[in-house]
Specification:
The chain is α/β, with parallel strands linked by helices and 271 residues long. The protein has helices spanning 10-22, 72-89, 113-121, 152-165, 182-186, 217-236, 248-258, 261-266; strands spanning 43-47, 56-62, 99-105, 129-134, 145-149, 170-173, 191-194. The chain has a single domain (39-266), classed as Aminopeptidase. It contains eight helices and seven strands.
Length: 271
Amino acid sequence: MPTPVVGVSYEAGQELREIAARHPLACTHSTSGRSVSGTCRNLAAEMGPEGDTGDIIVLSAHLDSLPQTLGTFDNLTGVAGVLEIANALKPLANLFQRTLRLLIFTGEEYFFQGSRAYVEQHQAELDRIKFAFNLDGLFPETAEGIAVVWSDSMRDYIDAIYQTSGYPMDVRSHFCMSSDYLPFVIAGVPAGRQADYKDAFPLWTHTMTDTPGKFPVSWVQQNAMVFAWMLARMLCDPNPLPSTRNSTADVRCFAEAEDVVDAWQSYGFEL
C-alpha cells in the first residue's frame, strides 16, 4: 500500500499549530524528494513444544519509526522488551504447554501494515492464538498497567496472575487502537498491551530528541520482568486458557459501541 509522507520537526509542527490557533491559516507547501518502492519483512521466531499444533501466545513489537524521530522510545524499547522477555523465558521453554510466537512487525507507523499483513496471511491459525500481547513504548509507568481489549475472561485471568504474585498491576478492560494489536483485535483475537494509566507519556516521543540516553536500560528490564511473569504463567498453565475468539458480529458490535468503525475503514480495514 503506497503511503505518501511529509515529515516536519516537532518544533515546526508546534509553530504551525500555534499560528493556526490564533487565526485562520491558509498553507501552501512544496516538497522535494523521491518515491522508492521496496519490500519490508516481519521477523518471527518461536519457543516451546516442537511440532506443536495447539495454542499460541503472541508477543510482538514494531521495528519501524517515523522519519522525524530517532525512534528510541517508539519503538526500540518495545523490541528490546521482546528480546529481554524471550531471554527470561528461555530456561522455562521445556515446560511450555503452548507455543510462544515472537513477532517484530514493520510498517506500524503507516496504518499497521506489517501486523495487518501477518493477520491476513495467517487466517487459518487465528483460532489457535489465545492472546496477542504487544509492546510499544516502555517506561516505568507502563510496567504498572495492562489494557486487555474485548476479552473480560482474559482480563480476569491476567488480574489473578498478578494478585497471586502480589505485584500491584492495574489490569483493565480498556479499548485503544494505537498499535499492532489492532489487526488481531479486528480479527477477533483476544489482545492487550502495556498501559500508562498515569498519563506519564514522554513528551519527546516522535521528536529528534528521542535519544537512547533518555531511556535507562533498567526501564526496559523492569517492564520485561513483570510481563515475563504473566507470559510464563500463560505458557506453562496445564489448563486451557479462558480466552475465546470474538465473532465478526461481536467485533462489529464492540466497534460501533466505541464509535471507531469509520476510523477503521479509513485505515483500509473491513468489517
